[in-house]
């Protein structure tokens, strides 16, 4: 019998708090973390570096299959991301890269090409997987599936604050429009669209602090929703 590895999936649209919450949760549980959005962002950046148009699915699939990427976590689970040996941790976090990631992520064969790479993150002692289709496609047998939402206004404000704190100047109205476009693209694509799995717990984080959401998830885990070994 194969060993059961505890697995929590956290899906939701941009600005729903998934990234921050997944990383706090992984630290608290002492688990590994998969930031699947980073993979799509890295692919978009690699396409730019290798001058591959974002509608050339065949070339993008080849690129995805051979992506030379390393996630290097320190003992505090802070992760640096190397693409072809170069640290791209900050370069992939721009809104431009996020929008391009959403474009490549809509290509069905690109998603298939990244599937095994994502599933390989499921290793002892456990995994918190963050994305759009973690509970629906990549890990349909997860022990507990969370789907985070928040109002579009709050999500745009959170993103605005994050970018300003990083010293990136943005316009709130432009950002809101881009987030709405990205949500629409992610939710309406035919393959692995952004939507809660039928067995996901949907948590609305509008007006709720990060700590409150983390505590809610921990209490779901403690209620025995995480399948025992
Ligand atoms: O979570 P993020 O902003 O880093 O994700 C960037 C884009 O990648 C997102 O707009 C859609 C795509 N994505 C996806 O299609 N599936 C995932 N599991 C994660 C991200």
Number of strands: 8
Q: How do the strands of the widest beta sheet line up side by side? A: 2-6-1-7-8
Reading off the top of the CATH hierarchy, the class is best stated as Alpha Beta
CATH topology: Rossmann fold
Layout of secondary structure:
Blueprint: E1 7-11, H1 18-29, E2 32-35, H2 36-49, H3 57-65, E3 69-73, E4 79-83, E5 86-87, H4 95-105, H5 108-119, E6 127-131, H6 134-138, E7 144-149, H7 152-165, H8 172-188, E8 201-204, H9 210-225
Parallel strand pairs: 1-6, 1-7, 2-6, 7-8
Antiparallel strand pairs: 3-4, 4-5
Helix pairs in contact: 1-9, 2-4, 3-5, 4-8, 7-8
The structure holds 2'-deoxycytidine-5'-monophosphate.
Sum up the structure in keywords.
globular; binds 2'-deoxycytidine-5'-monophosphate; Rossmann fold; alpha/beta; 229 residues
